[in-house]
Amino acid sequence: MNLKDLYINFFVNKNHKQIPSAPVVPENDPSVLFNTAGMQPLIPYLMGQPHPYGTKLCDYQKCIRTNDLDNIGDTYHHTFFEMLGNWSLGDYFKKEAIEWSAEFLTKELNIPKERLAVTIFAGNDLIPFDQEAHDLWIQQGIPEERICPTSDDNFWIAGDTGPCGPDTEMFYWRSNDPIPDKFDNEDERWVEIWNDVFMQYEKHQDGTITELPKKNVDTGMGVERTTAILEGKMDNYESSIWVPIINLIEEISNLPYKGNEESMRIIADHLRTAVFILADPAGIKPSNTDQGYILRRLIRRAIRHAKKLNIDINSDWEQKIAIKLIEQYNKYYSELNDNYNVILEGLKNEKIKFNRTLEKGLREFEKVSNKDIDGITAFHLFDTYGFPIELTIELANEKNLKVDIEGYNTKFKEHQELSRTASQGKFKGGLAGNSEIETRYHTATHLLNAALKVVIGPDVHQKGSNITEERMRFDFSCDHKLSDDEKQKTEELVNKWINESLDVRCDEMSKEEAINSGAECMFIEKYPDIVTVYTIGDNVSKELCGGPHVKNTSELGHFRIKKEEASSAGVRRIKAVLE
């Protein structure tokens, strides 16, 4: 049985409710471009909001992380991955979590106990050694010498303050070497496969830590890594998850995986990620900003490595790989079938655009190739025209020119550092978001959505949003640039509703009842059978949403549109502030 099915069946039998995977583009978390962990969509519920499905939950969640993009090509990094998780929202705690973790690993997955080891929290000046977790693992048959207390790696907190607590990580001996009696967590042959986080404290602004009255459990197990471990593979891309895709790339390129591992891994990883982004209900298209930029970069990097394998990039090679990926995952994610043509068209169109870009790059190279290529020029060819340094070197060699590789590497590292710094706010995630001002902006997006339906027409629908403490950004379906009159009427209507001091009500109901009542929903596929519906006033706005929201519109302040612009084909974008 598939690992996902085994996991869900196990926890459903422990009275957990399975919840659907959230989209890869988060609906209500402005701090990230993508859902980066299984817990991220559950943030409001970990903060105390009741979950419609109860207090015991489990799922498999689609995740995307781009901070390791330059590491893709090794044996174990992935841009898109699936995370298994089970949660207790103020229900069970350490005893059940650790007992069930041990049971699943040893009974369901049949992992011998002698191949397992764990880390626990060693304690610090504020929080004691996690004696309870230690004793529970001893009870599960993990010997003392296989339990390693650490302080740095076994305490979880999302930001500087908020819910936090110790965790326990489970490790597997991924080697044919003799298993040592004592666990050394610095030995890379011990590979982490699961993590249980115990949110039992709250860290305050003054640095003090107090016990939480309501304690949560959050767990995470990576599907790709665990599958490779269970199948005895040292290379994740040799596991059953990846073999069908790698075999197809071998067939298309007429080359073996051995000797071409890096390019084949990058093509497989990047196209899988691109397929899931294109399938997402947020309607992301390749562009030069935010999620669209990541999507464009992934597709273009896959194309560059296809060229390295001598694949005819004008053929339908990427369509074949995408179709294989859709067939592999559509049992679990219906949006792949629903957006089948969108996926294939998105990949094809970006490939055509990139081919044109490469042609422009070749012309640009001809302009600068009358002398040796300095580092700044080499980086400009890469950054502006997508020319990999290898291609610049290859073309330069044909003309007996030198390339300042060291200068290029310096510029590239500067670019990486800038990207990393700029991304910190986008990818931090966790429970640090949802401040008071962000909550106000979140409610304001509902009013803006309702106002646009009045001013522009009922066919206007939200396509995405991004909120910071300084402003809100709202994408919506619309076939024309808004006139000054339309913008003014929209702004006036939002402020009229704010001034009317309308109550914001939250109700739980079945998804069918919510839709029949006229509630709007951005991602209907991702919502469970029981949903929360936020209603503003008597009939101003009614939307399915996870929150959070203000209690009354009078809390919002004055709404002002700062800018209206195109986002992508058929989608406009408004940037606005609350003053």
Strand content: 15-25%
Biggest pleated sheet = 9 strands, mixed
What structural class should be given to the helix and strand makeup?
alpha+beta
User: What is the arithmetic mean of pLDDT?
Assistant: 88
Principal-axis shape:
globular
Rounded to an integer in angstroms, the radius of gyration calculated over CA atoms is 26 Å
Helicity, in percent?
A: 25-40%
- Structure summary, number of beta strands: 16
Number of helices: 17
In angstroms, what separates the terminal alpha carbons? 55 Å
Identify low-pLDDT runs.
422-432
Short description:
The protein is α+β, with helices and mostly antiparallel strands and 579 residues long. Helix content is 39%, strand content 21%.
